[in-house]
Amino acid sequence: MSRTIAVLLAGLRLSFVAGALAAAAVAPAATLTLEFWGNQLTEPVPSPGFNFGAAVDTDGATAIVGTRLGGSDSGIGSGSVYTFNIATGMFGPELVPSDGLAGDRFGDAVAIGRPYSLVGAFNGHDGAGAAYVYNRSGEQVNKLVAADGAAGDRFGDSLDTAGIHALIGAPGDDDFGNASGAAYFFNAMTGVQLHKFAPGDLTASAQFGYATALDESIAAVTSRLDDGTPLGTGSVYFFDWTTGSQLAKSTPSNATAGDRFGESIALDDNVALVGASRGNGGTGAAYLFDATTGDELHVLTPGDGAMGFNFGVSVAIEDGLALVGASSATADGIVTGAVYAYDVATGLEIGRLVLIDREQGDNLGISLAYENGTMIVGSSFDSDFGLRAGAAYLQDIVRVDIPEPSSALLLLTLIAGSAVRNGRHD
Known about the structure:
Layout: E1 4-9, E2 12-17, E3 20-25, E4 33-36, E5 39-41, E6 52-58, E7 62-67, E8 71-72, E9 75-76, E10 80-85, E11 90-95, E12 106-112, E13 117-121, E14 130-134, E15 140-144, E16 158-162, E17 165-170, E18 182-187, E19 192-197, E20 208-215, E21 218-223, E22 235-240, E23 246-250, E24 261-268, E25 271-276, E26 285-290, E27 296-300, E28 311-318, E29 321-326, E30 330-331, E31 334-335, E32 338-343, E33 349-355, E34 364-371, E35 374-379, E36 391-396, E37 399-403, E38 411-415
Parallel strand pairs: 4-33
Antiparallel strand pairs: 1-2, 2-3, 5-36, 6-7, 7-10, 8-9, 10-11, 12-13, 13-14, 14-15, 16-17, 17-18, 18-19, 20-21, 21-22, 22-23, 24-25, 25-26, 26-27, 28-29, 29-32, 30-31, 32-33, 34-35, 35-36, 37-38
Protein name: FG-GAP repeat protein
Signal peptide: 1-29
Keywords: Signal
C-alpha cells in the first residue's frame, strides 16, 4: 500500500511514493503537510458513539487505548480499554476493572509504563473516582483511591506512571473551594499514598489536576482554569516527587483570559510541554518550560492556524521532538484534525501530519503519545466503522537532522515515518 510523505527542504518539495523519489521546485510554504497512512486500530467489535481513541498511550512496544463512552458487561458508560502488541500486530488482553459499574467512565485516562499500566475511572468508586493498576498480563493488581476522596472529586480524570509510581489528578477536589482540585502520588505496587498535592493558592474552579505528568523526579500538574493573572488563563505546577515540595509555578508569557493553558502536559528530560487549546487568539498554543526552574523556553503555534483549531488539546515529547494535537485543524477544506511537530531545542515548526484517508470530523489529535519512535494518535470521532465509533493510529517516526543551507545553520527535521503495520487489526 503506497504512502505519500511530502517534505519541504530549501525550496524543494520531495515526494516519497512507495520508495520512489521525485523532486520539483515549489515556493516555500508556511506549514509543511506530511500525509501518513498509519496502522488503524479499532475495537474488536466497533460500536457507534463509543469514541474509541479518546485516550491513548504507548511505550513503543505496547499501545493502550480507551473508549470514552464504551460499554462492557458492567453496562453502558462503564468503559473499556484495550492493549495492542505492536511487534506482533495482535491485540493483547482487554483491561477490565474488578468492580466496574455503568457510568464509571473507566478508560477516560490511560497510561502505560514498566511494569504497570494505569486506567482511570473518574466516576467510579461511588462517584469519587479510582485508578486501576494492571500488569503486562492484563491482571488487575491494585486499585488506587484517594485517602480523603469524596463524590465528585473526579479522581482518575488524569494520570501518569513512572516505574512503580503513579500520579493521579482529581480536578473536582474541593479543599480550597468547589473544583479547586488536587493530585495524588502513589506507590502503585503497594497502593500506598505518598503525597497529596494541593497548593495553598488554589481557588474554586481552578481544576488543579486536570492534566498530570511524571518524569525522573518531577511531578507536573496543571490547573486549567487557574485564577491567576490574567483571570482563568491556567497554570502548571512542578513538584519534587521525593519530598513533595513545590519547585515552581508557571504561566504563559502571553497569557490571556480563557486560554485553558494546562489542557494537556507531557514531560521529557526535565522539559515540560503544555497545551493551551484556546490560546493564541483562539487557535491554540503550546509552551515549552524548564521543569526544574519553571522558565518558559519556547511558544509553539501552528503556521497555518485558525480560530477553533483546538491546537494543544494533546501533547507528547521525547528526544527533542515535540508533538501537538489539533483535533479541529483543517486539511483540504475539511475539519479533520492534525498533529504538528516541532524541534524542542529551537521551537521551530517542522510540519504537520494528517491522515491520507482523512474525513470530516475525524477528531484526529484528540489524544496523543510518542515513545521510542512510535506515535499513537486518537481519532475518537472516526466513523469508518460506525458513527463516532472512533479509532487510533500507530505510526513510526524516524528523525533525520539535515543542516539547512543558511547562515543561521538551523536544523530541519525530516519526518519520514513508515507504517508499523498496514491495515486494520480486528
